[in-house]
Design a protein that fits this description.
- Molecular chaperone. Has ATPase activity.
- This protein folds into 4 domains: 231 residues, Histidine kinase-like ATPase, C-terminal domain (Heat Shock Protein 90), CATH 3.30.565; 135 residues, Ribosomal Protein S5, domain 2, CATH 3.30.230.80; 84 residues, 3-Layer(aba) Sandwich (Rossmann fold), CATH 3.40.50.11260; 127 residues, Up-down Bundle (Four Helix Bundle (Hemerythrin (Met), subunit A)).
- It is of the alpha+beta class and 633 residues long.
- 37% of the residues lie in helices and 19% in strands.
- The chain has 22 helices and 23 strands.
- The protein is elongated.
- The structure holds adenosine-5'-triphosphate (ATP).
- Adenosine-5'-triphosphate (ATP) binds next to helix 3.
């Protein structure tokens, strides 16, 4: 491009719709801790330096001339400006449009949905959320009325300026290289009237030390344009220091600058492995759930360093079920110039992955032993993800089962471990009973539980979608297999009822009940595979269960919903022969119409108790009406 063309071509681009929404939120944010913008910009600058270091391994000319990476902040009180400059990788024109005009992070999108929902509900934004989760570059519009980004990509002889007031569009134009950093990016914030504090040395230095003290690139601060910058942080890698030199605050600060989250970590795991493989790990379990935890594309976010050079955050350093763990591994065992693809397949990496996984799980186990409250919080945040491991990681299945906590008919508002369950199991109890479903209240009201409750047999109440899957794969815990109480026969006769209820122990199947069952089997043959007397019911008249060997009812619904299986299998209708309604119906064999209405209504009642709808709502309503009218007549 010629000099003349460079000066004239200013292109205006509209922001992607989501960016515009996000910016609107930023500008109208009521969040009081605006300092977070600085951490976001410093973190991007540090990433850019790390990317350069990596690319320079194969092409040393990229960092030629200016080998030491640094981030320099310049204050300009008079001009009400704050500048953040790095000598990292820089951005080409296309990269600017991609990075500063769209939203790449799925977490940011999820965050926006959450914050918008909170706003509609409460009439205001959930300001805390902005504070807890970084929202990247765009957060600078909390403090700036205009932002200029001038960047020159390493190795390029072009420089570009991106400029915006954050109100719907941005402009891009080419600038003369003499106006740009020799390499890297300079971001100039034209501060808002009320953001003057970000030109105070004292304030900015404190914010840097508090928020970004452990960024692995040195940070310098110049008091005014042209002044000699002074070092604020030295950029040494925290993980290379020995544990006893590192305070809890150091770890928390580091976690925050690494993860982009602002919460306190629930757990940190810092160790150096020596021997066959040498590597250092510094990993954290966050104190809160990231928004995109259940995003199917979400993978581990651990960073891989080789001899302190950042290589990739895409190396799957932990299995998928630990995808919430943040942190890094730094090893000297891998060569620096190995491609990312080769690293992925390297046996050294799988050994490291194994080691890191073990250490993280052991740390979680220790927390479970030492601090129930902290562990419960961790479990509430990440239990549903950890349980995926029971399904996916055969080798660690028992370990994960032992770690898992459950609601059950005995847990009240607390949680039970499988060890608790087995410890309190009835004599001779061979199975661990469970019931799966969408929510706890519905499960607690399930008729299928009645017989178990009456006999004091504990049942696990499983409400996460993953539960339906791992229970199929987990053959046993402590010699006991898992058994769904909505599948097959309950066989509760082995457990005695409490003395007070002994009298009504085994339901008597009289001839009239047998007759009713034969009638129901015939009449309901299209809808159910069998009708039988139940020993799992005590209060309800009927319930539905899956036949032995079929899918658990809840799992079948999930698979059907996901289009993985076609059509539902026919359930079994179980009847409580002791129930007064059932007895009354059985006694009315003289009235065919009434009996037919009654068995169809019983079936629909069982469906409703299962959280489903009557198959034919109209016929159901008419039947109900007929029976009502008779009763009232
Ligand atoms: N100083 C910089 N140098 C080079 N590229 C930058 C710089 N600042 C931002 N970018 C580019 O802009 C993109 C968007 O930045 P933003 O902070 O919004 O999200 P992010 O950094 O990708 O997300 P995360 O904070 O989760 O890493 C970055 O991924 C990067 O490509």
């Amino acid at each position: 491009m010629t000099e003349a063309a460079v000066e004239k071509t200013v292109e205006n681009h509209a922001f992607e719709a989501d960016v515009a929404r996000l910016l609107h939120m930023m500008v109208h944010s009521v969040y009081s801790d605006r300092n977070v913008f600085l951490r976001e910009l410093i973190s991007n600058a540090a990433d850019a330096c790390e990317k350069l270091r990596y690319e320079a391994i194969t092409d040393p000319s990229l960092s030629a001339g200016d080998g030491e990476n640094r981030i320099t902040l310049t204050l300009d009180e008079e001009g009400k400006r704050l500048t953040i400059e790095d000598n990292g990788i820089g951005m080409s024109r296309a990269e600017m449009i991609e990075a500063l005009g769209t939203i790449a992070r799925s977490g940011t999108r999820a965050f926006m949905e959450r914050i918008e929902a909170a706003r509609t509900e409460k009439g205001e934004q959930d300001a805390q959320l902005i504070g807890q989760f970084g929202v990247g570059f765009y957060s600078c519009f909390m403090v700036a009325e205009k932002v200029d980004v001038v960047s020159r990509r390493a190795g390029s002889d072009e420089a570009w300026r991106w400029s915006s007031d954050g109100k719907g569009s941005y402009a891009i134009d080419a600038v003369d290289v003499s106006e740009a950093p020799a390499r890297g990016t300079r971001i100039t914030l034209h501060l808002l009237e009320d953001a003057g504090t970000y030109t105070s040395r004292w304030t900015v230095e404190k914010i840097i030390k508090d928020q970004s003290g452990h960024v692995p690139v040195p940070i310098l601060l110049a008091e005014k344009p042209g002044a000699e910058p002074a070092r604020v942080t030295d950029g040494t890698a925290l993980w290379t220091r020995s544990k006893n030199e590192i305070s809890a605050e150091d770890y928390t600060d580091f976690y925050r600058s690494l993860s982009g989250q602002y919460d306190d970590p629930a757990l940190n795991v810092h160790f150096r492995a020596e021997g066959r493989h040498e590597y250092t790990t510094l990993a954290f379990v966050p104190g809160s759930q990231p928004f995109d935890m259940f995003d199917p594309d979400r993978r581990g976010r651990m960073k891989l360093y080789v001899k302190r050079v950042f290589i990739t955050d895409d190396a799957d350093l932990v299995p998928r079920y630990l995808r919430f763990v943040r942190g890094l591994v730094d090893t000297s065992d891998l060569p620096l110039n190995m491609s990312r693809e080769m690293i992925q397949e390297s046996p050294i990496l799988s050994a490291i992955r194994k080691g890191v996984t073990s250490r993280v799980l052991t740390a979680i186990e220790k927390l479970a032993e030492s601090d129930t409250e902290a562990f419960t919080k961790l479990w509430e945040n990440f239990g549903p993800v950890l349980k995926e491991g029971i399904y996916e990681d055969f080798e660690r299945r028992s370990q994960l089962l032992a770690l898992s906590r459950f609601r059950s008919t005995s847990s009240g508002e607390g949680y039970r471990s499988l060890a608790d369950y087995v410890g309190d199991a009835k004599e001779g109890q061979r199975a661990i009973y469970y019931l799966t479903g969408g929510n706890l209240d519905q499960l607690r009201a399930s008729p299928q539980l009645e017989g178990f409750r009456a006999r004091g047999v504990e049942v696990l109440l499983l409400t996460d979608s993953i539960d339906s899957f791992w229970v199929m794969n987990a053959p046993e815990f402590d010699g006991k297999s898992f058994k769904s109480i909505t599948q097959g026969s309950a066989d509760l006769s082995q457990f005695a009822k409490p003395e007070s209820e002994q009298a009504e122990n085994k339901p008597e199947t009289t001839a009239v009940i047998d007759d009713l069952i034969t009638f129901a089997k015939l009449r309901l043959t299209d809808a159910v595979s069998d009708v039988r007397v139940s020993d799992r019911l005590t209060e309800s008249a009927v319930c539905l269960v899956a036949f032995e060997g079929g899918y658990d009812r809840q799992l079948e619904k999930i698979l059907q919903g996901a289009g993985r299986i076609e059509g539902a299998s026919k359930p079994v209708l179980e009847i409580n022969a002791d129930h007064s309604l059932v007895k009354a119906i059985a006694a009315r064999s003289d009235d065919e119409t009434l009996r037919e209405d009654a068995v169809l209504l019983l079936l629909d009642q069982a469906r409703i108790l299962d959280g489903d709808k009557p198959e034919e709502p109209r016929a159901f309503a008419e039947r109900l009406q007929r029976v009502f009218e008779r009763a009232l007549r």
